[in-house]
Amino acid sequence: MPRWSSTRAANLRIAAQYGSVVLKFALWSCANMAELDPIDTKILRLLQENADIANADLADKIGLSPSACLRRVAKLRESGVIVKTVAVVNPALVGRPLKAVINLEFHRHGNQYRQDFITKTRQLAAVRQCYIVTGEVTGVLILHMQDMAEYTAICETLFDADENIVWYRTYIVTETLKDEAVIGV
After folding, report:
1. Among 32, 67, 111, 114, which residue carries the largest CB count within 10 Å?
2. Is a pLDDT exceeding 60 seen at residue 185?
3. Bridge-based pairing state of the strands 127-132 and 165-172
4. Is pLDDT at 2 greater than 70 in this prediction?
5. Can you tell me the distance from the alpha carbon of 64 to that of 58, in angstroms, rounded to the nearest whole number?
6. Would you tell me how many other CB atoms lie within 10 Å of the CB of residue 102?
7. Residue 27: is it exposed, middle or buried by C-beta count within 10 angstroms (0-12/13-18/19+)?
8. Which residues does 139 contact at the CB level (< 8 Å), separation at least 6?
9. Which pLDDT does position 29 carry in this prediction?
10. 48: closest CA among 159, 183, 171, 147?
């Protein structure tokens, strides 16, 4: 029998309030959520802080043998909890100091109408994150660009040339208060 966390119970309560479509999503989310014990969560916290940590050091901090720790990390990778290991780069030091958040609205929302846009966003190095969201906008993009000339070129290519984009609004980041790649576990 699966262990039900308070998060799963909350998801089910929220789903019950909003109807069957959300209920199906919440049940799917609960069914596919990995079961993490306290050791797994410690491993994830430490690896998110420093993915370069040697297995022996990680095992020491967790209180496991190196072989048991290695097995745990491998299991987290195989189950999809750890998706990939990356190096977090300072955008300003690699020539991409201009950061922007862009909200946009599609005219039509069907998958066939989005494919061209999706293909373009995946090809642009400046687009670091792209989300289709609920609410008042269709999409949110996070861009790291070299300068305003690159921003202008992206607007012309990605937004102005796409007849399915009704409008877009750009917010240039003037100060970053928090920017972490860490997921709380």
Report:
1. 114
2. yes
3. unpaired
4. no
5. 9
6. 22
7. middle
8. 103, 104, 105, 106, 130, 131, 132, 133
9. 52
10. 183
> Residue 25: what residue type?
F
Q: Which DSSP string corresponds to 113-182?
A: HHHHHHHHHHH-TTEEEEEE-SSS-SEEEEEEESSHHHHHHHIIIIIIT-TTEEEEEEEE-S--S----P
Q: 């990939």: which residue's tokens?
A: 84
**Spatial contact of 72 and 123, defined as CB atoms under 8 Å apart:** no
Structural tokens at position 143: 């861009």
Which one-letter DSSP state was computed for residue 103?
A: E
pLDDT tier at 113, thresholds 50, 70, 90: confident
**Which are the contacts of 130, defined by CB distance < 8 A and separation ≥ 6?**
118, 121, 139, 140, 141, 142
Whether the CB-CB separation of 142 and 128 falls below 8 Å is answered with yes
